[in-house]
Design goal:
Layout lengths: L2 E3 L19 E6 L7 H10 L18 E3 L5 E3 L17 E6 L10 H17 L4 H4 E3 H5 L5 H5 L1 H15 L3 H12 L6 H5 L5 H17 L1
Parallel strand pairs: 1-4, 2-5, 2-6, 3-5
Antiparallel strand pairs: 3-4
């Protein structure tokens, strides 16, 4: 997972530099602008520093800690120690995360989804959060249809949280070792070994393949 820093310029509208409280939630959003990049949207948040107004003449207050691009690159817009303007009353105790999407279904690309899961795992570990409870949607705070895909497909949102929970329980050393064996062409189903679903026949096959590989070195 690649993280690129594009910090917003301190200003009253998108980076007030208020100290955030104890982190209780991670709030998921969709960018609401299909086909745009994480960098585009980070620049939009930074552009609010001049004091832009909406159609009703009110100043726009908006930002997020992270934006995940369709290419899987994560843009960090604010330090996690600062408040972002993303979820109304939850701003003071939550990390805001925007997800880009290629079309108006709001469904993230495979690369964006992988980065989303990995970033959620990292944040939940850092703040000792239980993912099925702590990961919420903007919709859960204000009732706004955001993120659209995960509001309309509740099952997909549940699966996202369960996947994060599963990865949090993974053995990092084992995952690393399995990845090495996969890259060497020794195993083709890494999830079988990571999840511990292998059989005696799997072990026999692995031993034979490893022996053959070592013999060629």
């Amino acid at each position: 997972m690649q993280i690129k820093e594009m910090f917003i310029t301190p200003n009253p509208y998108s980076r007030p530099q208020k100290k955030i409280g104890q982190i209780k939630n991670i709030v998921i959003h969709w960018i609401g602008n299909a086909g745009t990049t994480a960098e585009n949207n980070a620049k939009y948040f930074d552009g609010l520093k001049v004091g832009k107004k909406n159609s009703t003449g009110d100043y726009i207050y908006a930002s997020s800690h992270y934006i995940i691009g369709n290419d899987g690159v994560v843009v960090r817009c604010l330090p996690e120690s600062e408040v972002a303007y993303h979820a109304s009353k939850a701003n003071s105790y939550s990390i805001g995360m925007e997800i880009c999407h290629p079309d108006w279904s709001g469904k993230p690309t495979e690369k964006a989804y992988d980065s989303l899961v990995n970033l959620l795992v990292e944040l939940c570990r850092r703040y000792k959060l239980e993912p099925t409870q702590a990961i919420i949607r903007h919709y859960d705070v204000t009732g706004k249809v955001c993120p659209k895909y995960y509001v309309e497909d509740v099952g997909a949102f549940k699966r996202l949280k369960e996947e994060v929970k599963g990865k949090m329980g993974e053995d990092k050393e084992l995952v690393k070792a399995v990845k090495v064996l996969q890259e060497k062409g020794i195993i083709s189903s890494p999830e079988v070994w990571i999840k511990g679903n292998y059989t005696k026949d799997n072990v026999r096959s692995l031993v034979i393949k490893v022996s053959s590989y070592v013999d060629k070195i």
